[in-house]
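@channel anyone free to eyeball this complex?
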Amino acid sequence: MTNHRIALIPGDGIGTEVLPPAQRVLDTVGRRHGFTFSYTSFDDWSCERYLREGAMMPPDGLDRLRDKDAILLGAVGRPDVPDHVSLWGLLIPIRRGFRQYVNLRPVRVFEGIDSPVRGAVAGKVDLVVVRENVEGEYSEIGGRLHRGFPEEAAVQESVFTRAGVTRVLDHAFALAAGRRGRLTSATKSNGIVHTLPFWDELVAECGAAHPEVAWDQEHIDALAAKFVLDPARFDVVVASNLFGDILSDLAAAVAGSIGIAPAANLNPEREFPSMFEPVHGSAPDIAGRGIANPLGAIWSAALMLDHLGHPEAAADVTDAIAAVLAKTDVRTPDLGGTAATAEFTDRLLELL
Amino acid sequence: MTNHRIALIPGDGIGTEVLPPAQRVLDTVGRRHGFTFSYTSFDDWSCERYLREGAMMPPDGLDRLRDKDAILLGAVGRPDVPDHVSLWGLLIPIRRGFRQYVNLRPVRVFEGIDSPVRGAVAGKVDLVVVRENVEGEYSEIGGRLHRGFPEEAAVQESVFTRAGVTRVLDHAFALAAGRRGRLTSATKSNGIVHTLPFWDELVAECGAAHPEVAWDQEHIDALAAKFVLDPARFDVVVASNLFGDILSDLAAAVAGSIGIAPAANLNPEREFPSMFEPVHGSAPDIAGRGIANPLGAIWSAALMLDHLGHPEAAADVTDAIAAVLAKTDVRTPDLGGTAATAEFTDRLLELL
Ligand SMILES: CC(C)[C@H](C(=O)O)[C@@H](O)C(=O)O
Ligand SMILES: CC(C)[C@H](C(=O)O)[C@@H](O)C(=O)O
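replying in thread with the prediction:
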């Protein structure tokens, strides 16, 4: 029987509350489909550890994860720890150190979820944002001069490489070819005149190599507007690191599912483990109360199943998510219900 | 009687169709309130000129505008001319050469307009995006190396200066103080770790100097989501060049008013003329058919009236916009009607 070695990094806040439900779901579908999981939990890789020991994870953190088949992460961040410490001390080093250059963020409108957007009707909106995840605008290159003086300035370099852009575009075009065959590239080459014209050129090259995909491009300002005006028209949307970050949150909001949205940080070559994480943060305002929505973590676990070679098990999980939303009133407060995390998970497991 | 010297730059596409309605409105309110306009029209500063003569405007273009009290611009751009030629040859040199460092973009939900967002109810959403307009992510600094080879890369430098950020923040805080006293700053200092932490520091400094304003900050991804989930909570939103571009289009879409949205490019010190322009582009798909929505240009003219010291005349114009939408069915096709530009303008003038 295949066993998958999973690293669990619960992290901070509700991160610690949403991973146990995801594990319950994984073990259940594993039993049904004939595979198992063994978990190694890195419980203290968190802001608490940072406050105690001065680092979010041990110096050999990445080495401890290296032999795992995948990583499931809860959430990172706490109000009393600056983001550049918490995120750049744990989440981002894993994304970069393990060359997880594809960040995949599916968005669907589920029946039973009220979308804030009139056009976002269940069954109609089903898109994936493919975000470049390791270069671009999120760059360590830059700094500050004349600190504290009137002439102070900060500079930051965006870096787009042909290799870095092409590999994520290839992934996105291949994904579109296996879906509805439509791809939209996010750009802003009319304003950002060095990096994004280069991005556009590479999209055109990749598009020529994928004649089976109908592709177009939109400037990020117009594209954000179209996500609201006509979300159903999108299939695969490929975007740079920053634009993908914005568009995936926006799309999740349009779908009424910020608390449900999942993400896969993929190393498609499987040189290193990939990482799966809900898009919601650590939510300090509701942490510790047992009412966190587990669906983001559970859907992320489904993306992990897919990556581990179990697409049918993955589909079982997303079907159960759809079913619990469509067929029951049980849901956590963020979705307008009164259920606790555990009760919501129980109900989903019954439908699995 | 005060006379204002206005430079008209109709530009391309529907730009040429929306300025005459704006002029009619200006002349009408001028007569009522006791001031006049003299117009100098720069009709051939356009893509057509570029295709004929190799430049969007003459080499001494800015000098010809310098003695004007304000500039009213239609739209710039044509599919057969690259954006870096059309925009960087006309629009952006004016913004930068005349130090128009504040880009002001009001967004309102008008009665009679269907918003795509359920929470965007008439009378509830009334916000202004204050966008930094001359530095930041829209930078000329950068380039390409190893062109055409596998190791090719493009770099682009974002530059944020204390002087450049502080002056637009000051403007935004002062604006908020005169409105509902609430300001939200758009950031992404958790991912963009050099420029945006600096932005955040300057916001905090400015906030401390404006105790009468209640301010907060949101990361751009979460903020875009909140524009959809709860647009009514915002008053003044201040943002960098790129984030302001995205948020203002998004907010206009949320309000159902992409075709109505106006912009003021302000040089608050009045060293140079300020420029007023509808946010919609040249819309080549409908250009030449006389059906362009003139409200973006007319609302932009109202912002110009304000800037020229005629707030009451400006309010008359925005009241007429509200009235034509609330009280009549006459409207252009983009708003679901069948009226031509001229007929829509006639109706608005009757209500003025
Ligand atoms: C056309 C483009 C360069 C411009 C911008 O991004 O500034 C436009 O989108 C705008 O918002 O005025
Ligand atoms: C927390 C932040 C650095 C992160 C990002 O922008 O990548 C988050 O917003 C995300 O989308 O995973």
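from a first look: Chain B touches chain A through 59 residues (CB under 8 Å).
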